[in-house]
Design brief:
The complex is a heterodimer of chains A (350) and B (223). With 350 residues, chain A is of the alpha/beta class. Chain A is built from ten helices and 14 strands. Classes of the chains: A alpha/beta (350), B alpha/beta (223).
């Protein structure tokens, strides 16, 4: 039977596998075996699962397969960053960025094809939204990575708003952090959001991974000019919800702050940022802006970023300046896009 | 419709007062009003008290007796196929209003596509339509929701851009084509955009290209 017509087992969590095997009349522990083969041993065929009887393997192979999709293209930056292009749904693509460092190797994964949020500074938003990634498509970016064994960290900071696809994100984290999956510490994983409050609270409740909030302005009215989400979930409300949540000692929260010249890099902004984050145990990551075509925004100079950092640090905040990686291959923050590859069925009507 | 994600806001059981189909799969639903709101705000709605409530812009005016929303039934949607089949008297679960997509009294342009017209209808009904120009985009002449009401309120300051219908009585072309054809756009006003993210991004880029400062563009994307 053509594998295209079979259901993919890859990307299913243990509880989903259990429901499936029970529906097939198989014992529940078969699910644990399947998870072990797929996520620990990382086999790519059911026939390779040699501790399942031939009868069980044949039964599964009738309707199921393990389908991982290798990247169709890779670009390598002068700084060693690699950008991988993955096919997803028919005629659609997403990108992931592998960022090696001296003491760590991070994979930045995507969660949607395009994005619905329309932030002024992000290339992904310019392609519109073509669909959510499935759990399999999210985990595929990790498991298909040639450098899988070198990975130390996963950040959900690629294409799309993770909290707009929170169930698939949570299932993918489940696979990565459960003993039956990769068994990684949730501290190795950070999920970013622009502040979709209900889904963010769902994430905090169900996961122990770190949270990164895309802040970019401490002022509600100014943030609205660059991030339409502000009209629905103001940043002050996002921060209030985070304050109410007991983060615990293991979970870290960070606030991402892209520095735009003349927009959010003044002393006034620094002072308000300090006031807004007062009392929250967090880190602020200052990010150099990577200009995108036709944007009215400019990035703050490195001197200006350092000055801003010093101002925040003098008031007691923990602040880092994120190194820009992969800018020459458009893999840096805000640059991921498969716009040129998106084939539209019909021009959007408006 | 805005978000399709879980909402932990309290939802209050509310009876439906009216539901009517405007055209195709687009409906207007009104329900009992239990709160004050500001024109431009949204409510979260579900058919069960603890589910994945969706967000809808309020279309009724601040002083209207009932709350009205506009929604588009999505064939594979998790809520709208149920909403469209509900009857008067049946209960839905509604949150208190929230959001700050709020217009001001100053001169502005309101730009919307599809059900994105809802917050502007609310603003118009709430007396905020003075000094406003409203530009509405749609595929067919039938898809200009509330057009009669808007025509009466805005007169020559109401522009309809019809992208598909050949014999349209309106501007034939996409909303972006109409904007592009304008020799000049006012630079000293605010532009309010409401619709899909794709529309917001494209219209915003076009406005910026034509010299409008991004600080004068306020958007609400339906996500």
């Amino acid at each position: 039977m053509n594998s295209v017509l079979k259901t993919n087992l890859f990307g299913l969590t243990l509880s989903q596998l259990k429901s499936l095997v029970i529906s097939l009349g198989l014992p529940a522990f078969t699910a644990t075996q399947l998870a072990d083969w797929m996520y620990k041993k990382r086999v790519t065929t059911i026939s390779a699962m040699t501790n399942l009887s031939k009868q069980v393997r044949d039964k599964l192979e009738n309707e199921y397969c393990i389908s991982l999709i290798p990247s169709s293209k890779v670009q390598t930056s002068i700084d060693g960053t690699k950008k991988y292009l993955y096919p997803t749904q028919v005629n659609k693509f997403i990108e992931a960025a592998y960022i090696p460092d001296e003491d760590r190797a991070t994979l930045c994964v995507s969660t949607q094809i395009g994005c619905k949020m329309g932030c002024l500074f992000c290339m992904t938003g310019k392609q519109g939204f073509q669909g959510n990634l499935t759990t399999a498509e999210i985990v595929n970016q990790v498991q298909s990575l040639p450098e899988f064994d070198k990975l130390t960290n996963i950040v959900y900071m690629g294409m799309g708003e993770p909290m707009d696809n929170v169930e698939a994100v949570l299932d993918s984290i489940d696979i990565m952090t459960s003993p039956w999956g990769y068994d990684w510490s949730p501290k190795r994983i950070t999920v970013s959001t622009i502040g979709i409050i209900p889904a963010m609270m769902n994430f905090l409740e169900k996961s122990q991974a770190h949270l990164a909030v895309s802040l970019h302005s401490p002022f509600d009215d100014e943030r609205r000019e660059i991030m339409p989400i502000q009209s629905v979930y103001p940043i002050t409300e996002v921060i209030s919800e985070i304050r109410r949540w007991e983060l615990g000692r293991q979970r870290r929260i960070s606030f991402e702050y892209i520095m735009f010249k003349g927009v959010n890099d003044s002393a006034r902004h620094a002072n308000e940022l300090v006031r807004l984050l007062n009392g929250i145990k967090c880190r602020v990551n200052l990010i150099r802006f990577h200009p995108i075509p036709d944007t009215p925004l400019e990035g703050t100079s490195m001197e200006g970023i350092v000055e801003f950092q010093n101002r925040l640090k003098s008031k007691g905040l923990t602040v880092t300046i994120r190194a820009s990686r992969g800018e020459d291959i458009f893999a840096a923050c805000g640059l991921l896009s498969t716009k040129e590859l998106v084939r539209r069925q019909a021009e959007t009507d408006f | 419709m805005l978000s399709a994600m879980s909402v932990k806001r309290n939802l209050y059981k509310t009876p439906i007062k009216a539901i009517r189909r405007l055209v195709d799969d687009v409906y207007v639903m009104s329900f009992v009003r239990n709160f004050d709101f500001k024109a431009g705000q949204v409510v979260a709605i579900d058919i069960i008290p603890e589910g994945n409530a969706r967000l809808y812009s309020i279309a009724s005016g601040e002083n209207d007796d009932d709350v009205e929303i506009l929604f588009d039934e999505k064939p594979n949607g998790k809520l709208t196929p149920y909403l469209s089949r509900m009857k008067v008297g049946e209960k839905i679960y509604v949150s208190e209003p929230f959001g700050n997509f709020l217009s001001r009294n100053e001169k502005a342009w309101w730009i919307a596509v599809g059900t994105g017209i809802a917050p502007f209808v609310s603003m118009a009904r709430s007396g905020l339509g003075t000094n406003k120009t409203i530009i509405q985009g749609a595929k067919w002449d039938d898809n200009f929701y509330f057009s009669e009401e808007l025509e009466n309120a805005f007169l020559q300051n109401y522009v309809r851009c019809c992208s598909q219908q050949e014999d349209t009585v309106n501007f034939k072309g996409r909303l972006t084509e109409w904007l592009r054809k304008q020799p000049e756009l006012p630079m000293d006003i605010e532009y309010y955009l409401c619709g899909s993210a794709e529309m917001v991004v494209e219209v915003r880029d076009l406005l910026i290209e034509k010299g409008v400062h991004f600080k004068n563009i306020i958007s609400e994307t339906y996500f």
